[in-house]
Write a structure and sequence with these properties.
With 672 residues, the protein is an alpha+beta fold. The chain has 24 helices and 29 strands. Strands 10-9-15-14-13-12-11 form a 7-stranded mixed β-sheet. Strands 17-16-22-21-20-19-18 form a 7-stranded mixed β-sheet. The chain has a 7-stranded mixed β-sheet with strand order 24-23-29-28-27-26-25. Helix 19 crosses helix 22 and helix 20 (528-537) crosses helix 21. This is Fasciclin-1 isoform X3. The chain crosses the membrane at residues 650-671.
Length: 672
């Protein structure tokens, strides 16, 4: 055996260090480059490199000074419309003269563009950081290197091109880094896509509110433009001091990208007497995504009504000295149209969220809008375009008589805000259709609240709430009420008040048959509160039914609630059948009990009730229509103690018989 040399381990150690060094150099080839060389060699940064290289000021700055470069990748440039003035504005607006890693960034940094307009920083988390509207590509950030004269420099890749405020081409006036007041005062010299803001400016001047737009710090300003095609106009005199305050969110610089949709922010009009918040939303209209801002007056001061006012953001994310400006289609907070006029405002807005609703009204019942304007306080649940585009309802839309009968199902005589519903003051209200109510449910998740409603057997979600009108309020919903679009099993799965029955149907496999569109089901479905009542009245029975090993018992109980026939029965069908039998019992051929008899009563105030085994059970929601049947939601379960005891006795008897047989077998084999 040959012994190894004592220097061999040392050589291996040195070779190892060399290989590690090679790997590190191979993994970071650009660590030996300046920022300019890095951008020149990185194929995905060639666009920003070219723009900076063509700019004498930007190029010199990078070669001579410490800088941080926010570098949009090439895909960002591909998504941006090229402008003639790009070379004048973009190079220096992506550079600041202080080298800063992400963790060193504050609320803003000053750019190298003339006037040093700021770039605003939003930190949602250590790894989710925005520069104005652009998101930092975290794994491509914090590249550090010194330039050729030893100045430290940092580069962060971002996913959008930063867009500074620009002057109109050949503008006679030079405007450098204006605040919000200077922005409005000099709007005629700025490149604002042809929009003008003179009306709002004049109101701010006449009401002496200049100072709120000149405040230092970082704020968000919503500035209405004079006119937008196909959008309703607002009388200028309706813009008062409080309305102006509602157009400013203090101490928050809100660009659309980093701001959560629906998150509410207090405006300057959030005071002791008057409370107005604002929030962003977006919607797909045709092949475009449009952005909106809403003001929501939560508390009225007697002059300004409660409710939301929505404005389209026609030019967004304009960075200024003291924050960001969004140009909007109309003033916030001003309620200047009644419900009829609100719907009519979507007449020529082909992709506006209520355009299809307006068209259906015009094609079906033009008097419907006049009816809305005649009511002094009205709530309209208006289906969105997407609601009417749903494939499953298209065959119903051709039946104009049927659609006409459904319009009033979307109207409540009285003003009903989300706050009225959430406060628990009501969980159901009458519509303009006799004996057809709307039922509400509020789902809360953290700060988010989702309102769902059921009308005519259809569940809908409110997608825009509390839209204010002079004679009422509008809620935009995502389904057309009264047109069934779900099978019985899907209705159970999507109704938040029927979770327990749905669960038992799933574990017992009863629900499997409820998707069959060839059959017609009538299902008396206990709502969740009915099961809760059972858990209080008979906790041991309740516990057993919800144990998976006793799912066969749950199935038997549910089968008592289910009728499978060649037709589905409304409560009125059952009432008429009882009347034909001299108001005596009516036979319900349920799956479990072929000869189950009940009585039906119908009281004007309370609605329908069913008598089962000498106990009257209220029908909370009657005639919930599905594509393959009807559900009646009831307040009590068809169950008594014998159901569980009898089954338990049968099970016990079966076990006893099995034990006797087993004992006989053992005796037989032992003695033979």
């Amino acid at each position: 055996m040959t012994s190894s040399s004592p220097t061999a381990p040392c050589r291996r150690f040195v070779i190892g260090l060399f290989l590690i060094a090679v790997v590190q150099v191979t993994y970071h080839p650009a660590q030996c480059s300046t920022l300019m060389k890095y951008m020149a060699t990185e194929y995905n940064l060639s666009q920003i490199y070219s723009i900076i290289e063509r700019s004498q000021i930007a190029n010199s700055t990078i070669h001579l000074r410490s800088v941080t470069v926010f570098a949009p990748h090439n895909e960002a440039f591909m998504k941006t419309t090229k402008q003639d003035t790009d070379d004048d504005y973009l190079p220096c607006y992506h550079i600041t003269n202080v080298p800063m890693k992400l963790e060193q960034l504050g609320k803003s940094v000053f750019s190298e563009l003339d006037g040093n307009p700021p770039m605003w920083i939003t930190k949602k988390s250590p790894e989710e950081i925005y520069i104005n509207q652009a998101k930092v590509v975290y794994h491509l950030a914090n590249y550090e290197h010194n330039n050729t004269i030893g100045k430290p420099q940092v580069l962060h890749v971002i996913d959008q091109v930063l867009q500074p405020l620009r002057l109109k081409k050949n503008s006679p006036q030079m405007i450098y880094n204006p605040n919000a007041w200077e922005f409005m005062e000099n709007a005629e010299f700025l490149d604002l896509n042809g929009y003008h803001t003179n009306i709002f400016l004049q109101r701010v001047q006449s009401l002496e509110k200049k100072h709120v737009f000149s405040n230092q710090g970082g704020h968000t300003f919503f500035i209405p433009v004079d006119e937008v095609a196909n959008h309703p106009k607002v009388r200028p005199e309706k813009i008062d001091v409080k309305v102006i305050d509602a157009h400013i969110i203090p101490d928050n610089v809100l660009f659309l990208g980093p701001t959560n949709e629906g998150e509410q922010f207090e405006t300057l009009a959030f005071t002791d007497m008057l409370k107005v918040v604002a929030f962003f939303s977006k919607a797909e209209e045709g092949d475009k995504t449009k952005y909106f801002v809403s003001s929501d007056t939560l508390n009225s001061d007697g002059t300004h009504p409660t409710g939301a006012v929505v404005a389209e953001i026609v030019k967004a994310n304009i960075p200024i000295k003291n924050g960001v400006v969004h140009l909007i289609s109309r003033p916030l907070m001003v309620v200047d149209n009644n419900v009829k006029e609100f719907v009519e405002s979507y007449k020529d807005r082909e992709y506006g969220i209520l355009h299809r609703f307006y068209e259906e009204i015009m094609n079906t019942d033009k008097d419907f809008l006049d009816q809305l304007s005649s009511l002094t306080n009205v709530t309209l649940f208006a289906p969105s375009n997407n609601a009417f585009n749903e494939q499953s309802i298209q065959s119903y839309l051709t039946n104009r008589t049927y659609i006409k009968s459904l319009l009033n199902l979307h109207v409540v005589n009285g003003r009903l805000s989300i706050e009225d519903i959430v406060s628990g003051s009501t969980d159901k209200v009458a519509t303009l259709v006799p004996r057809k109510d709307l039922f509400f449910n509020v789902v809360t998740s953290g700060k988010n609240r989702t309102l769902t409603l059921e009308g005519g057997g259809v569940n809908a979600t409110v997608v825009q709430a509390n839209l204010a009108a002079t004679n009422g309020i509008i809620h935009i919903i995502d389904h057309v009420l009264g047109i069934p679009s779900s099978t019985v099993d899907r209705k159970l799965a999507t109704d938040p008040t029927l979770n327990d029955t749905n669960y038992l149907g799933q574990v017992s496999s009863l629900n499997d048959q409820l998707s069959d569109v060839q059959k017609r089901f009538t299902y008396f479905v206990p709502r969740d509160s009915a099961w809760k009542r059972l858990s209080i009245d008979n906790p041991s029975v309740y516990k057993k039914l919800f144990m998976p090993e006793y799912s066969y018992l749950a199935r038997q109980i549910l089968e008592r609630h289910l009728i499978v026939a060649d037709k589905a029965y409304t409560m009125d069908d059952l009432r008429k059948e009882a009347n034909n039998n001299y108001n005596l019992s009516v036979k319900l051929p349920t799956v479990r009990d072929v000869s189950m008899y009940v009585k039906i009563k119908d009281l004007p105030e309370e609605g329908y009730s069913i008598e089962w085994r000498n106990e009257w059970i209220h029908v909370h929601r009657a005639d919930v229509r599905c594509t393959n049947g009807i559900i009646h939601v009831i307040d009590q379960v068809f169950i008594d103690d014998n159901d569980i005891e009898v089954n338990a006795a049968i099970a016990t008897k079966s076990v006893t018989v099995m034990l006797l047989i087993l004992a006989q077998c053992l005796v037989f084999f032992y003695f033979n």
